[in-house]
From TrEMBL:
It comes from the Bacteria. Interacts with ribosomal protein uL14 (rplN). This is Ribosomal silencing factor RsfS. It is found in: Cytoplasm. Belongs to the Iojap/RsfS family. Its main location: cytoplasm. Gene3D superfamilies: Beta Polymerase, domain 2. One of its GO terms (cellular component) is cytoplasm. The keyword rRNA-binding does not apply. SUPFAM superfamilies: Nucleotidyltransferase. GO terms for biological process: cytosolic ribosome assembly; negative regulation of ribosome biogenesis; negative regulation of translation. Keywords: Cytoplasm, Repressor, Translation regulation.
Length: 127
């Protein structure tokens, strides 16, 4: 069974660090899906955002990793999608970040797939 190294940081706090990394690079339509009450959920939280270009998607993913590592010295357990840059997944075990190209997000529609989850939309702030 996979486990995070830094168990002192709650999954909720980790999800906020992921959001910070996404907002830092202007991730769009940032949403947190709270899966803790969803039967058979594979994580506590999904944090999802969209980007408009390959370059931005790559930058958002790098920013997420940077913010999490800077704050709690934790590296992802698993990541994939960096090569094609249409859907980059960064798995921190309890929290999974999904960085989508806008059309791919609509196509896969994981918010609908996990429709039982409590969904929180993050207001975009002017930086």
């Amino acid at each position: 069974m996979k486990q995070r190294k830094n168990k002192e940081v709650s999954s909720q706090d980790l999800s906020q660090l992921v959001v910070k990394g996404m907002i830092e690079k202007k991730g769009q339509d940032v949403a947190i899906l709270d899966l803790r009450q969803v039967k058979n959920a594979i994580a506590d939280y999904f944090v999802i955002c969209s980007g408009t270009s390959d370059t931005q998607i790559d930058a958002i993913a790098d920013s997420v990793e940077f913010e999490v590592h800077k704050a709690i010295a934790e590296d992802p357990w698993h990541k994939e999608g960096k090569e094609n840059r249409e859907w980059i997944l960064i798995d921190y075990v309890d929290v999974v970040a999904h960085v989508f190209k806008k059309d791919r997000r609509q196509y896969y529609d994981i918010e609908e797939l996990w429709g039982d989850a409590e969904r929180t939309l993050i207001e975009e702030t002017a930086a």
